[in-house]
Amino acid sequence: MWSRGPRVAHLWVRRSFIGGGAAVHLNENNEKTSNTRTVEERIQKCDPVKISRKVVSDSDKTSLNLRLYQYQTCPFCCKVRAFLDYYGFSYEVVEVNPITKTQLHFSSRYKKVPILVAGGEHLLTESSLIVSILSTFLHRTNRSLDDVIRCYPEITVNDPKTQKEVLRYPNKYYVMLEDVRLSDEQIQNAREEREWREWVDEHFVHLISPNVYRSWAESLATFRWFSEVGEWHEAFPLWERYLAIYVGAAVMFFVSKKLKKRHGIIDERAAIVDACNQWLAALGDRSFLGGDKPNLADLALFGAMNSFYGCATFEEMLERTNIGGWFERMRSEVESHAGSALIRQRSG
């Protein structure tokens, strides 16, 4: 099993309204301008963005008015979409140009995707944090989104590699329940879910770029595929589309080599095959890591894998491992919004 750093203790079983009101907005005070314009006002002040598509769910009566700023094939964005679709959230999608990022001008400090704007007021960042916040929101039906956000305080730490201060969210893999007493089995299941969610972020995701951008030809083919599935011909002008394809392919080809070296990857295909087999070993004879239904770790890995669905790496992964059965079960669950009973309960 992949080893992890120190855990934050027992937050799953305790009611944890930990202080720190500016939990998620990338430090709310920094994200707001001096005249405290809302996120929606800042979005309107910038050039109008094109809504790529709207996902409407009859089950969602939460009035969260979610808007996802994303790259269609970014693994972190795919993780968020897998969660939103499985539980049946309604949301808008804005496709961000990966080179110019003009769609993110409203966000003064944070320029990474995914960004999820809720109600034109809350700017949520970091895929695992977004998932934990919304999962807690679904489970704690008597709490507002503001209340839930306060469960996820930020801390500032010094990055030993860059010697710069960075924001961290110690609770980002935790779903915060009300005061309940969990059985030993439930506690173990929650711990397993957290560990594998972190494994997806800290291990599996790092294997994707060295594989899909392995050669110049593969990198260019990948970006052409991204342009097709992301419908860039609808979202961007012609010159922006070609800039994104060719500059993006060149940049990521070289970036992938640096990532391969940084993470000590010798054979990128063997590494991703080994990761799939680690996951299958953890599944055992279960349909999903969550048992009869997916948990947040299942959704995280499915989203990450879906980010390179259609690429040569994905096809080779299916040929060399038995992960295809799990992936198809997950796709069926996500596309059918199999978890929507929870959002209907919240909407009621």
Low-confidence stretches: 1-36
Q: Mean pLDDT score, rounded?
A: 85
Radius of gyration: 20 Å
The general outline is globular
- Name the helix and strand elements from N-terminus to C-terminus, one letter apiece: HHEEHEEEHHEEHHHHHHHHHH
CATH C-level of the largest domain: Alpha Beta
Going by CATH, what is the homologous superfamily of the largest domain? Glutaredoxin
What fold name goes in the CATH topology slot of the largest domain?
Glutaredoxin
Number of domains: 2
How big a fraction of the residues is strand? Answer: 5-15%
N-end to C-end Cα span: 41 Å
Number of H/I helices: 15
Helix content: 40-55%
Adjacency order of strands in the biggest sheet:
1-3-2-4-5
Features:
Glutaredoxin; 348 residues; 15 helices; disordered N terminus; 48% helix; Prostaglandin E synthase 2; Glutathione S-transferase Yfyf (Class Pi), Chain A, domain 2; 2 domains; 5-stranded mixed β-sheet; single chain; alpha+beta; PGES2; prostaglandin metabolism; EC 5.3.99.3; two-stranded antiparallel sheet; lipid metabolism
Describe the overall structure:
This protein has two domains: 28-181, 3-Layer(aba) Sandwich (Glutaredoxin); 206-335, Glutathione S-transferase Yfyf (Class Pi), Chain A, domain 2, CATH 1.20.1050.10. A five-stranded mixed β-sheet has the order 1-3-2-4-5, covered by helices on one side. A two-stranded antiparallel sheet has the order 6-7. The protein is 48% helix and 8% strand. Helix 3 (75-87) packs parallel to helix 4, helix 8 crosses helix 10 and helix 12 crosses helix 14 (324-335). It has 348 residues and is an alpha+beta fold. A hairpin with a 3-residue loop joins strand 4 (115-118) and strand 5 (122-125). 41% of the residues are buried. One of its GO terms (biological process) is prostaglandin biosynthetic process. Keywords: Fatty acid biosynthesis, Fatty acid metabolism, Isomerase, Lipid biosynthesis, Lipid metabolism, Membrane, Prostaglandin biosynthesis, Prostaglandin metabolism, Transmembrane, Transmembrane helix. InterPro entries: Glutathione-S-Trfase_C_sf, Glutathione_S-Trfase, Glutathione_S-Trfase_N, GST_C, PGES2, PGES2_C, Thioredoxin-like_sf. Its EC number is 5.3.99.3.
